[in-house]
Amino acid sequence: MEILRNLPLFPESASTFARDVDALYFFGLFIAAFFSLLIAVLVVVFAVKFKRRSENDYGIPEKTSLPLEITWSVIPLIIVLGLFFWGVKVFVILYRPPADAVEYFAVGKQWMWKFQHPEGNREINDLHVPVGVPIKLTMTSEDVIHSFFVPAFRVKADVLPARYTTVWFEATKPGKYHLFCAEFCGAEHSRMGGSVYVMEPHDYEAWLAGEEPGKSLLASGEELFTDLACHTCHTGDTGGRGPLLTNLTGSEALLADGRTQERDDLYLRESILDPAAKIVAGYQPLMPSFQGQINEEQLLALIRYVKQLNQTAPGEGVQTAAQSSAAAADEG
Amino acid sequence: MSNAKSKERPEGYPDRHYLNAAHGLKSWFLTTDHKRIGLLYLLAITLFFFLGGAFAVLIRLELATPGGDLVQPETYNRLFTMHGIVMIFFFLIPSIPAVLGNFLLPLMIGAKDVAFPRLNLASWYVYMAGGIFTLWALFEGGLNTGWTFYTPLSTVYSNTAVTTAGIGIFITGFSSILTGMNFIVTIHRMRAPGLTWFRLPLFVWSQYATSLIQILGTPVLAITVLLLALERTLKLGIFDPALGGDPVLFQHLFWFYSHPAVYIMILPAMGVISELIATFSRKRVFGYRFVAFASVAIAILGFLVWGHHLFVSGQSVYAGAVFSVLSMLVAIPSAVKVFNWTATLYKGAVSWETPMLYALGFIGLFTIGGLTGVMLATMGIDIHVHDTYFIVAHFHYIMVGGAIMGYLGGLHYWWPKIAGRLYPVFLSKFAAIIIFVGFNLTFFPQFILGYLGMPRRYHSYPDEFQVLNVMSSAGATILGIGYLIPMLYFAWSMFYGKRCTQNPWGAKGLEWETASPPPTLNFDEIPTVTEEPYDYTPKEVQHAG
Ligand code: HEC
Ligand SMILES: [Cu+2]
Ligand SMILES: [Cu+2]
């Protein structure tokens, strides 16, 4: 029975989401198996029972039966609609991370994964996470399209250049699980992966402490903000050359051409790499492009830093960015 | 088999027919006879089939062990890319339409040829021109983008023969468009007197639906490939985000053609199966009109489902849901066909000739392929199995278990018509069974591998997947042998097979009302149709039953 031990039939389930996907999968499998067997049995039985016995044997034609045609259209229709609704329900779970999910970051590049923990720890190809904590990964790619795939968690999401995609999971079982790249990405595609280590919280703490901590994302964001001289235009005492970067999260920018634009990660990314693409109303296109000066990880750090500025920055009488563009709109 | 036997002529065997009407290479390469053009295609696609098959052999050899030990990763990537391109664009898409469709369509509707015979010949040359570019790409070292050409990998990061292969696909597309157009006009304009739409064989209906897809979908592929080439050569920013393009746009454009392309492959096979089931059950196809309209429904719905390839590509959940439900709907006409075929067997007079073995095999394999397709259209399942071996297994059940089974079944059924000769009965049944067994052994384990999480296009893989992969490779060996056998006996039969009578199966249909092999102009006298299709049962038997 050596061979059976080497013949896995079903993957390990190690996340809350895995249970949802498996239940749905078993339902789908049941439907597929049921109808495949039904058809196979009917075909074999008819082929044997009605086997031609002599050269003068003919089939006995039947009139098309409308009720029959309707029955075997409607029954499959009901079943597939059931699968459809259930499928969307499961998909939406993955699409909407819980509000209290802890944000980690991933950058894919030919052919490695770079991860960053909220505490600042960095890893390549391996990812350590605590069990029982919902974790949301914000991901982007430095080159081609990759796909983050952990079979034991049943989660997968493409990782695109110049875009941010997310995926979330809550691990339920400590252990070591495969991490794959699922989207073909070039020569070493099949080696672009490693392991996800799920640990008990105290083990995780110990692991974090034992590692080179590195700077937290916000700290490196703040440092970049100064190093790249963003503050020379974007703080209150510079005569308003650039808008104040406060209260950005969840707000909308009014653009010079009259459109409004939600300040999501992608917009902030564009504002830094290609500022001329969308000019905030009331300002001159003064901001230099930082394309080529910072990599994807630094960009993520900057974006996370400016996004939380509302919690720390606004002092007495300082206009927030949102207010300043609203004021500019009134003037214009 | 002795030479004397192969020279024996059954009564009524024609002295002059399309095969011996003219001699010499010129008479073949400049022919406008749809039957000879069909044979030109047969030769060409068979070569491509064995080329694509050779790539598959190397792929399965590499995957017999977890390590990447046979070829370099880069070589492996080129192998599966070329396997996909050759098999899809140069074998599967032209297979049934260009070979069997070309040969049979005019015969089935009682016409002397297709509507535009010279255009028909031109289509073959266009196809060959595309094929030559693709072979040239191979000599340039092949390409490593996957047959899906996803950007920006294909436009920015690959320095292989992408443009050459793209040109090949672009050109071949026009052959497909021209053939589709030719068939549509032929079916509209050239039916024999009395042959109304609902007296058409179901094969003609499915060819009609297929031709619609070919002319509506293929131009989009051509444009997509063109944009790809422009971005590669002129650095136009269409798909590359660094130039302001959108890589996901490419996926939309690509699948807008490539999903319907699946129906270009499977619909004609369904048409073949309808013919086989009727002939070998000696019975009218149950629910004829439903089966006919199901083909058209599949062709139309097929254009509305491409987004099911993008559930995890960053597409919004709303778009995903719409594509999911539309994909589900395709299951209905497909199910209608399967149920009606099965019902046709009921109270039929079923004979187990070789073509029928393929037809029965098709029903089972297509059902599995279709139902796993429904599972994949279920968004919650697709998250996990997308881009794994589950997908690979699913589409091989449709394309190999479905389309190739249909093609081989059709070839065995119409072979006496094409060659005027028979092939060895026992050997052909043996090969059909070998193919069925080999196929399932190759691809069934891949469903399991996929749910376990083995991603597709992997050159090396974790050890625990090995046993299933070895099973798959073993199955592929059996399957490969299974495909070689028919090729050998068909080649033999063409020259040495026993000559057959005009209608060896006792089949209905205008194609059997002329000599086998037919004369160059098909019918000495254009037939007039007075019967319903598949009118097998003599009136007295009908009343008795
Ligand atoms: C030379 C002055 C200057 C510098 C340096 C500068 N910016 Fe700006 N920035 C501007 C101006 C002016 C605008 C408004 C016009 C526009 O939208 O381009 C702006 C707009 C922005 C916006 C959009 C704000 C909104 O209200 O939507 C963001 C985000 C931003 N900058 C981030 C940065 C970051 C991060 C840096 C440092 C890497 C930086 N800027 C450096 C001048 C500057
Ligand atoms: Cu990859
Ligand atoms: Cu599709």
What does this structure look like?
The complex is a heterodimer of chains A (332) and B (545). With 332 residues, chain A is α+β, with helices and mostly antiparallel strands. Chain A has helices spanning 2-5, 16-49, 66-95, 201-210, 217-227, 231-234, 265-273, 296-307, 309-312, 321-331; strands spanning 102-109, 112-116, 122-124, 127-130, 134-141, 146-150, 155-159, 165-170, 175-181, 194-199, 252-254, 260-262. Chain A has three domains: 11-48 and 61-95, no CATH class; 102-210, Immunoglobulin-like (Sandwich), CATH 2.60.40; 217-331, Cytochrome Bc1 Complex, Chain D, domain 2, CATH 1.10.760.10. In chain A, 39% of the residues lie in helices and 19% in strands. The longest helix of chain A is centred in the N-terminal third of the chain and has 34 residues, at 16-49. Chain B has 545 residues and is mostly helical. Chain B is globular. Chains A and B meet through helix 2, helix 3, strand 7 and strand 9 of A and helix 4, helix 6, helix 9, helix 10 and helix 11 of B. The complex binds heme C and copper (II) ion (CU) (2 copies).
Comma- or semicolon-separated keywords:
heterodimer, A: 332 residues, alpha+beta, Immunoglobulin-like, Cytochrome Bc1 Complex, Chain D, domain 2, five-stranded mixed beta sheet, elongated, B: 545 residues, mainly alpha, Cytochrome C Oxidase, Chain A, 17 helices, 68% helix, globular, binds heme C, binds copper (II) ion
Would you kindly provide a brief summary of this structure?
Chain A is 39% helix and 19% strand. Chain A is of the alpha+beta class.
